[in-house]
Amino acid sequence: MDRSSNPVRAFLDRPNDDRVKVFGVAVIVAFVCAVVVSTASVMLKPLQDAHLEAERGARMEAMLDTLPGMRDLMEEVGVTALEMRMVDLQTGEFLSDIDPATYDPQAAAADPEQGVGIPADQDTARLRRRAPYAPVHLLERDGELLMIVLPVEGTGYQSVIRAMLALESDLNTIAALTILSQDETPGLGSRIEDPQWQAQWPGKQVADADGNIVIEVVRGSASGPHEIDGISGATLTAQGVAGMVTYWMGPHGYGPFLERLEREGI
After folding, report:
1. H or E, element range at 154
2. Which of 31, 163, 215, 265 is 20 to 30 A off residue 241, Cα-Cα?
3. DSSP assignment, residue 54?
């Protein structure tokens, strides 16, 4: 067969400095690389998700270890992990037909048919949308709530911050705040992960005596039960954490659920 009638052979026979050949080779290499990257991303996603879930689980365990007497209390209750249940954020009711272990709140929030728009005047977390349901973690004994852990998220200076907020049985006193993931400025905003900064949160009150949510991060030194020291050079990140807590404890976040717990108990 005539070599010139084969377009592939004709292309390969062009001089290496031929513009058409150079451009063609670049396109082919780019296409092959894109296929390889896409294939690797799809194949590795389950492994990445498993690693992420394992890391979050480890951080949850680390948070429990920071709570005085928590392990002893869990042993007394006879559990090795907190019970995870699904909650309808609008009604505050528990849901039994959704598996909290497989539910993806981030995907649900991004789904146009599932996601719930957040009113601008309530969106202190700067999320714009949230999922309709959320998984919560409970520690109870004989129907009495001992502690609750709520997943929360909000926008910091340059990333979405995800955390776990633990509340004592009065549903107002913070037992712990643990940052699960963030991509803030290294050495500045990333200091929200420092144990010393997170250690300020336990014992703080989210709301005042009238039920108004007043928890805040302040510049300088905190002076009251509702204040947390700010982070020098990372004001927006620290305020983002406070805004995150404010939103999720409010009427568009876990507010209906917490009110239902107070009214009806477990």
Report:
1. strand 144-155
2. 265
3. H
